[in-house]
Amino acid sequence: MKVHFDIVRRRHWFFGLSLAITVVGLIVWATMGFNLGTDFKAGSRVQMDLGQPVDIAQVRSMMNDAGLPVGQDAITVAGANKQTAVVRFPQVLTQAQVATINRLEKQRFPNQHGSSISTVSPFVAQETSRKAVWAVLLASLFIVAYLAVRFEYRFAIAAIIALLHDAFIVISVFAMFRLEVDLTFVAAVLTIVGYSINDTIVIFDRIRENLKLTPPKTYHDLQELVNRSLWQTMTRSINTVVTVLIAAVMLYLFGGQSIHNFTLALIVGLVSGAYSSIFIASPIWLVWRGRGLPRGEAEGVPGA
Amino acid sequence: MRWGRFLGFLAIVCIILGVTAGTSMNVWKTIRLGLDLQGGMDLLYKIEPPKGQALTAAGKQALLQAVQLRVNSLGVASPVIELESGNQIRVELAGNFNQQTAERVIGQTAQLQIYGSVVQKNGKWVPDPKAKPLITGADIRPNSAQVGQDQYGNVAVDVEFKDKQKWANITKKYLHKPLYTFLNGQLLTAANVNEEIPNGQTQLTGNFTVQNATELAKELNAGALPYPLKLVSSMNVGPTLGMVSLRATLWAGLAAVALIFIFMLMVYRLAGLVADLALVAYGYLTLITFSGMHVVLTLSGLAALVLGVGMAVDANIITYERVKDEVRAGKSLQSAVISGNKRALRTIVDANATTFIAGAVMYWFGEGDIRGFAVALMISIVISMLTAVLLSRAMLLLLTRSGAVRRPWWYGAKREGVKA
Q1: Which residues in chain A have Cβ-Cβ distances shorter than 8 Å to B299?
Q2: What is the pTM of this model?
Q3: What one-character-per-residue DSSP string does B99-145 give?
Q4: Sequence-ordered strand ranges (E) for chain A
């Protein structure tokens, strides 16, 4: 096999990079919070496909005539052709107001494709966010249990760290760029959780197999083994993420407007998932597993 | 070259392509689309029992039945009505109908009350707080309310009380005296009783249009709800918007699949072709499963399926990379395929099992959209295990054993000389 560059030896760079993104994201998140969609914040969200480029002033005047005055920043433009207007209201719209909006939309925008309007009361919003957090935590717990049985606890913990890393990166990116977080975002994070673990396991499985073939005697042996396993699975890691990314990017570019944020979260998460499996999960496992072993040949970077 | 095996391989290819091309359009038509794809409304109500009154299981059943009755009166095809989290009712109505009317008919109770005395408060007439209503909407015989006309030709609602004697007694007692009819707390009419009414019938009048008289008749017929309902969240999707989303997502999915096909052909050549055929089978079986299990396909479910394509391909990639390893280690193509498949299987099972766990937790905890996504994810994992593992493995083995190709190049592998 060709000589490849030593991934695990440069692990501090990768740890540092991930830490930096996560810390910046968490600071933004802690100070400014998410740009929460109506699923998590009580209120209403009106999404109109106007069939023509959105003129915010026109949409505003329409809402004014509907008896629902809104501020400039309550209206955002979305969609590949900038033809979708999204208007947010802090109040819960009544069905009569919904009907008025639909009627006015038909009147003012002859090419319109109708609207999607959702309203959420504070009670439901609270319930939804609570369930979302629990879902991620419980999913992680079950995955740890499965991995601890099938592999060993160190693999399980390292995989979970990589998984949480991916979730954090996606959360950070959404917090930093003020992207709207709605219910589909939760579905995306959960998918990423599933994918990230899937990706990590294929590598861990190879490490496990190589451990059986050539049990390492020193830390140096172990480091070699991890490096070898990573490169043996590299083509697969890349090819797989390429195919899944093809699917996600196509959905992002051409799919329906309501899954736009969902697919964006997926794309960020997929890239992060592939990265963390190789550059985060395996080095963490190596450091942990190698602690009991004699050093062997010099490693270059002092042990962590 | 063993022709028997090669023909077997060709037969599988023909079956997959033939069945898919022949029947998939018909199967597609039987799949129920979610509200986001075909338009409609989703209403979530919270049951709010009056203070001091407990929410009983029997009461909830009665409430569900009452809601069912109201929904049926709308005439919307295959409505979904379910109890959620113990104290919420979700109503899903698909298709094209008057959404505003629907919400009013489902959630509102027409509270009809007839009093014998009134008082004036803040310039408005309200029922005498000391008096009890003489008779209410609950006394109306079910399905008796209908739109009619009064003697002057104005639109009116005719109703009939269950207890004819009770109405006869009231009209006797208030003969030549006024009776005050309140609808939802508002004074509707005040009229003198001209004669005793023995047949239980009466007529409600008061500036009705045909439309709101029809709605009132429906509300009265549906009867009272055992507990008041409060609308806590709603989603209205216009039918055209749903169709636009569906078309966009389908085209995106198609483009993604086409690109993945090309990618696999370029990287793994003949083996890539096998993977692509397995993908076709995956798509078809998923359709059948959705149709057979009556799963509702939502927009996020559609996204999960396209993602599932990626995961199904991954199983093939893992296997083929293993085969390449085995070829590199100096094995013949045939034994490389056999041992590569065997070694890859455990990895694939472990990887898919964990993703499945994530899907199951989502289903367990999620609601609405998330559930749709989780169901689609779980189905696609199970089916991809069948097609990307069992089917494509059988096909690859048949093809290899037929001896049609011997050079590893055909499977995207390179022989790099013998290596331990």
Answers
A1: 256, 258-259
A2: 0.75
A3: HHHHHHHHH----EEEES-EEEETTEEEE-TTSPPSEEGGGBPTT--
A4: 35-36, 43-49, 75-78, 84-89, 115-120, 180-181
Phi/psi of residue B267, nearest 5 degrees: -80, -40
Widest distance between CA atoms in chain B: 113
**Closest CB from B235, B346, B352 relative to A117:** B235
How far apart CA A281 and CA A204 sit, in angstroms, is 9
Alpha helices by DSSP H, listed for B293-385, are 299-328, 333-365, 368-384
A250 contact residues in B (CB cutoff 8 A): 252-253, 255-256, 259, 306
- At A216-272, the pLDDT tens digits run 989 989 999 999 999 999 999 999 899 989 988 988 888 877 778 888 998 999 999
**What pLDDT, in 10s, does the model give residues B224-277?**
677 778 888 888 887 777 788 888 888 888 898 899 999 999 999 999 999 999
pLDDT of the residue at B332: 87
Cα–Cα dist A95/A19, whole Å: 47
- Asked if B350's CB is within 8 angstroms of A135's CB, the reply is no
Distance CA B174, CA B196 (A): 9
Token code pair at residue A34: 């998410």
CA quadruple A9, A10, A12, A18: dihedral, nearest 10 = -130
Query: CB-CB: which of A235, A244, A259 is closest to B300?
Result: A259
Chain A residue numbers touching B108 (CB-CB < 8 A): none
Between β-strands A115-120 and A180-181, what pairing exists: parallel, antiparallel or unpaired? unpaired
Contact B149, B161 (CB under 8 A): no
d(CA B189, CA B268): 81
Provide mean pLDDT across the span A60-67.
86
Question: How close is the nearest chain B Cα to the Cα of A60, in Å?
Answer: 21
